Amino acid sequence: MEQRARLQGKAPRSARRRRRQQVTAGGLRGPMAPNSSRPSRPPQSPDAASFDRERRGQSCGAARSASALPDRKLRQSISAAILAVAMAVGPTVRAEPSPTSAAVVATEATLVADTVLEQALLAAHEAAAGSALVMTFELQAAERALRSSGLNPRSCGASADCITRLGRALGVRYLIALGIASFADLSAITVDVVDTLSGEIIGHKERTGVPAGTLAALPGELVREALPIGLRHKPSGLAITCNVDGAIVYLDGLKAGVTPLSGPIVVLPGDHDLRIEAEGHLPYRASVHVAQGERHAH
Description:
Elements: H1 2-7, H2 13-26, H3 46-57, H4 61-68, H5 72-89, E1 101-110, H6 114-129, E2 134-135, H7 141-148, H8 160-170, E3 174-183, E4 186-195, E5 200-211, H9 218-226, H10 229-232, E6 236-239, E7 248-251, E8 254-258, E9 265-267, E10 270-277, E11 284-290, E12 295-297
Parallel strand pairs: 1-2, 1-3, 6-12
Antiparallel strand pairs: 3-4, 4-5, 6-9, 7-8, 7-10, 10-11
């Protein structure tokens, strides 16, 4: 019978039985396996295999991207970690301005010619520069700096809060706000001196019914009158010495610096409340009196 099978072009029964056993054991093998005539693919290097995987993965980029996304719990954990870091960092701490730094800006200009406003600002700037103040900005440079930051000084008027924000944006201790409003041939001029640390107006002068011919020079006179006595001439100072570095110095309830201080604290003449606090030490508190033009050491 095996001879008859060979004559008919069939494999012998014993060969067919062995073939069935190979199929049952784990798939086709040998010369009758599908695609056995194709040459086997040579092994690829790691770089070639990686490139081939990326090329084949381009057709299913959406599915690959979806599978690469972290699950919901992992995304929530990442978001919580980012939020915790942001809360730990906290807001940016603004540096304390120089004790005598100042600038002049026009916070109101109603029906005033540009040339007249420029002359008025120049007079106010020169008066402030002749005092104990140190002008941080040149004439009109402060306004340009504010506008480049998206702030409009003309929108403040006489608002102490708004003027304080302008001064803090400029990084100065004192901001002199000049306001001019003209009606027909008469004008009204106001000068406010604002302490940007406390946010309070510490000097104010105004003049109404000013003829147009005297408008430009008057702001300088008003600035000298509006400045507190301690800032008009030679400043009074309070020199603090402390044997502990990193102690926080408070003057009249406001933070004045951290020891060692770079120099005396500019203060107005009179009595002041001094407090010094340092970690691991009992707080120090005293009342000090500073005379006009005096450099008091404590």
